[in-house]
Amino acid sequence: MQVVLVAVVVAGCALFTYLSDRNQAEEAALRQATAAARAVADSPSVREAIRGEDPSRRLQPYATDVQLHTGVDFVTIMDPRGIRWTHPDPDRIGERFLGHTAEALRGQTFTEIYTGTLGPSARVVTPVFDGGDDRRGEHGRIVGLVSAGITIDAISEKARGQLLALLGVAVAALALGAVGTYVINARLRRSTHGMNAGELSRMHDYHEAALHAVREGLLMLDGRRRVALINDGARELLGAPEGVVGRYVTDLGLPAPLTGALLDTRPRVDEVHLTADRVLVVNTSPVSGGDRKGTVVTLRDHTELQALAGELSSERGFTRALRSQAHEAANRLHTVVSLIELGRADEAVEFATAELELAQALTDQVVAAVNEPVLAALLLGKAAQANEHGVELVVSADTSVDDGMLPTGLPPRDLVTILGNLIDNAVDAAQGSPAARVTVTVRAESGGLLLRVTDTGPGVDPSQRESVFQHGWSTKAPSGRGLGLSLVHQTVTRHAGTLTLTEPEEGGAEFTASLPLEPARVGVRTDGKAAR
Predict the structure, then answer these.
(1) Residue 216 gets which letter from DSSP?
(2) Which of 35, 74, 150, 379 is least surrounded by Cβ atoms within 10 Å, i.e. has the fewest?
(3) Mean pLDDT, the chain, as a whole number?
């Protein structure tokens, strides 16, 4: 169809050019004939010959000479009645001129297409004046007429010569258009992988349907790291506004680690990143087929899964602690039985009572200070877990939380995330230190809930306090993921609270989280130099 279109355009242009050239040839012939006729009519020798007794004898050679020099096909000189004095065919001299002469007899020069003795021709007829007084603008009376013209066959012959050149140009243009069409089509097919317009349309429809059907986040970036495509899931997970397509990744207001991952040209697999209120698993893959063509990014929401994983980890810790306690209880029971068998019943009672008093003392302390069941269960479980790692967990004397005092917008799962992760990090830090101890303070104050965890570990290097709440920071072995404190910070920030890190006078590290008792307001700025 494209080749046919090119052919039609070229043929139309060729036809227009031919007709235009033909019209121009006719106009040029008329101008040429006009110049010849006026020159003959203004010649003094012609006027003189007309006054003579035999005008044809002098005018016929003159007309033939003018015809040869000007390139016209005929020059006819006649009297005012139209009787020829000259003609290309001498036998027709004396006959009446075939054509119109009325306008010429009125003193005007005119042109016409007329069929005469030589066939159709483009001719000019002009009057011959006897001279008059030119200084007064008087031409005198009309003593003759002059007609000069070029036959249509001669004009057509000239146009046919131009037509051959025009056809050559048209054929060359058609060949060039066909080659250009082939090259463009070949390149277009390579770019569209051989798909035609209908297939591309269907693929676009499928693409749009799949884009909205996929619940995971899908983000596509072009070579300049601008958003080329984003589905509803990605817009929700990233908190991106409408009209984000075309904007640079750096303008989306995402956390620096996540922005760096999106800007990186290397592929990334199942990386965990935190936004203001979500835990995202990010995969990136560069678009194949050339350098910096773009990147495809998939996003999965692991917020709930991460919270469940944290709870599962706590449950596993509780299970290990219970298993250890069961093992220790069995050992103590064997000891009591052995003492009884040895006849030392008093010592057996004293040994059993002492162990029970230690366990009961911690339980009584927690229950007396914390009437909130979630907090009480968490502290008792973490105490057993810390004891398994050789760390003493102490509930401070000023801990006091009544039932129903937790913020209305703080779910128990978030409370476990905040306090559980802080205690776990403190226990890990305190292990191996002299008199390893973790002190926990939970206190409902006016306007807020205070959660403070202090350990006797080595503390945090002052140079790293700015990054301690960022994802990936960890004091553990390289296998540590450094996610706990970043989750704590994310949860505290989501509930419009503050999270600070200080160093107690006796050493170690002290983390303090303050949460308002009124419903949370997401996005409120946190305070404190070290708050994140």
Answers:
(1) S
(2) 35
(3) 77
Instruction: Provide the token pair at 476.
Output: 């553990």
- Do 274 and 261 form a contact (C-beta atoms < 8 A)? no
List beta partners, residue 370.
401
Q: Which two tokens stand for residue 401?
A: 């939380």
Tens digit of each residue's pLDDT (9 = 90 or more) over 169-197: 778 888 888 888 888 888 888 877 777 78
Q: Residue 32 — pLDDT band, cuts 50, 70, 90?
A: confident
Q: What pLDDT digit, counting tens, does each position of 139-171 carry?
A: 678 889 999 888 877 777 766 666 677 777 778
Q: How far, rounded to the nearest angstrom, does the alpha carbon of residue 498 sit from its chain's CA centroid?
A: 39
Please, are residues 195 and 203 in contact by the beta-carbon 8 Å criterion?
A: yes
The number of helix segments (H) and strand segments (E) in the chain equals 13, 14
Are 449 and 515 in contact by the 8 Å Cβ rule? The answer is yes
Residue whose C-alpha is closest to residue 471's, from 254, 224, 146, 284: 254
Q: At 505, list the tokens.
A: 């006078």
pTM exceeding the 0.70 threshold for the entire prediction = no
Three-state SS at 442:
strand
Q: Decide: 108 and 84 in contact? Cβ < 8 Å.
A: no
Give the containing element (helix H, strand E) for 448: strand 448-455
d(CA 491, CA 291): 40
Asked if residue 481 lies in contact with residue 271, where contact means CB atoms within 8 angstroms, the answer is no
Q: Give the closest residue to 482 by CA, choosing from 498, 504, 460.
A: 460
